[in-house]
Amino acid sequence: MNSCQSRQEGAFTVIAIEGEVDLSWSAEIRSAILDALGSGDAVLVELSAVAYIDSSGIAALVEGYQTAKAKNQQFGLLSISSAVRAVLELARLDQVFPIHDDLAAAG
Amino acid sequence: MSAGVRQLACLDFNSCSSNLQEIRGQVRAAAEAVGCQEDLVQKLVLVVDEAIANVIQHGYQGSRCGDIRLQISQHQDLLRFELFDWATPVDPECIKPRDLSEARPGGLGINFIDSVMDSWEFKRPDHGEGNVLVMDKKIG
């Protein structure tokens, strides 16, 4: 089941993604990330329940990262699945995003 | 189909992105049927998904009315994916992997295809219309 849910965790908006992220719905994730950043929040994208992600999903994450960086906002990935890690490595983006094992590590 | 060639799948579908999940399942099944390890299965699923997404987005400009055919076959120690579309023919010279040292959204699909597959090539289909992307991966 694919889903994208936002919640507040202290100072962070956590956007929890679940399922298989592909072209059919990656725009929804992009919107959720940009909306959260537009509110001025520090944003973490939780990816532990993502079984698959394609380049359109990765593009949404990259755009979030760049948008946050331009506005000096905190943006990171939280608890990434092995599937997400594999694609980030293939795209050579595994060293670009701040990646946190859990919320405490995100500070 | 010639001797020594085993057809694993021939899938006809339209250019609606909601078809991608089903197609990924078929690619997975074909890769597992020829004994690919899980790591390679995941990469092949990703690469074929990316190729189809490119057809949907760029070939058919997001229209859901385009026809797509995916053929998967085993040629001894090689797994071949042939992706047919009936969109405007591409100029292969314009489709190249980009520099990944710059982190920016977009354009990753061809890089994934290039890094995972042993060879890939755009050809003109025998029927003359559209494109066929032929991607080969050694599995032996």
Features:
heterodimer; A: 107 residues; alpha/beta; 5-stranded mixed sheet; 4 helices; B: 140 residues; alpha+beta; 5-stranded antiparallel sheet; 3 helices; 5 strands; 31% helix; globular
Q: Can you characterise this structure?
A:
Chain A has a 5-stranded mixed sheet with strand order 1-2-3-4-5. The mean pLDDT of chain A is 96. By secondary structure, chain A is an alpha/beta fold. Chain A contains 4 helices and 5 strands; from the N terminus they run E-E-H-E-H-E-H-E-H. The N and C termini of chain A lie far apart (30 Å). In chain A, helix 1 links the parallel strand 2 and strand 3. In chain A, helix 1 runs parallel beside helix 2. In chain A, 39% of the residues lie in helices and 33% in strands. The relative contact order of chain A is 0.18. In chain B, helix 1 (20-33) runs antiparallel to helix 2 (38-59) and helix 2 (38-59) packs antiparallel against helix 3. Chain B is 31% helix and 29% strand. Chain B has a 5-stranded antiparallel sheet, with helices on one face. Chain B is α+β, with helices and mostly antiparallel strands and 140 residues long. In chain B, a hairpin with a 7-residue loop joins strand 4 and strand 5. Chain A binds chain B through residues 20, 22-24, 52, 54-56, 58-60, 62-63, 65-66, 83, 86-87, 90-93, 96, and chain B through 17-18, 20-21, 24, 39, 42-43, 45-46, 49-50, 53, 56-57, 100-101, 103-109, 111-112, 115-116.
